[in-house]
Amino acid sequence: MTVLLVAGSVGGVMAIAPGAAPVGDTEQRQSACDYQSLFDETIGSVVSVRTSSGQGSGFVYNAANATNTNTTGDTYVVTNAHVVDGASEVEVEFDGNEFRSGSIVGRSAYADLAVVNVSDAPAGTAGLSLADTDPQRGERVAALGNPFGLEETITHGIVSGLNRTLPTELGFEIPNVVQTDAPISPGNSGGPLVNCDGDVVGVNTAGIAQQGAENIGFAVSPSVVERVVPELVDDGEFDYPFLGLRTTPVTPAIADANDLNRTAGLAVVSVLEDGPSADALQGATEVETVGDRPVPVGGDVILAIDGQQLGNGEALGTYLLTETLPGDTVEMTVLRDGEVRRVQVTVGERPDPMGT
Question: How far apart are CA 347 and CA 180, in angstroms?
Fold first, then answer.
């Protein structure tokens, strides 16, 4: 599996998102991280999710802390979509070897998230809350779940990177993924990645298992979970935003081939015919070979969306998923024929992926 890694610092200084905890508060919390107490406080909310084709992990979702979510008293379990792929009924094992039947109320293959409803969860079952913000690099975390069927397992590490893009076997990419060096193995999928306060900072999704790779794991970020899961609970589906574009970051070779004076923005390689952007954006008109590599020539260069500058495709995917919905109108700032223009695009809904 190839993973696209994105630099997350500017001028050698780590950029901290607005609303993140002050460094002093974070250091104090990290130095006091007690993994034994953390395990005791959270493991009762971690479950095993079994289907006829396999087993994964999950956690009880604190729906009461989510806005715009139908809270009927039922218990909702969050897991990965690939854990319950192809299943309609699942078996959920709660703490204390309590088994219950669950029904899938919604799943999103594009975000690799699913929600299972259990109407008769064991008494006293408590949910985990999502962290208010995405984690910071270097923040201590723990992965909880059932790797290889080994129940009630905890591994720990730090947040190694943010805003990663995770390619999938179905040919699309999951944006805004958290990278961690906490070991994540088969069976961990769907379990929570928690911070030292016991809040969920990710849903464990994948790890790289190849020669030379050590402790490179990935989790769906809390901002994506917060956007997708309430929709799955309420409506059984999530309408994934879609522009119908294929882009690539402007490299020196692309800049030279297109007579650009800087390497900024995203070159539009192609635009889906009859897609959301078909009437607003222009794709490359030809491809040149520069140093044995194909380079798109002609077409627009996207500089910003709704005023947010774009340095890479990960930023565009993250903005679409966390800030827009199908039907919204976004303003794209583009460079076309040497002139900066602003065009309006109505966000569409991404078609279901092949194989789901």
Answer: 32
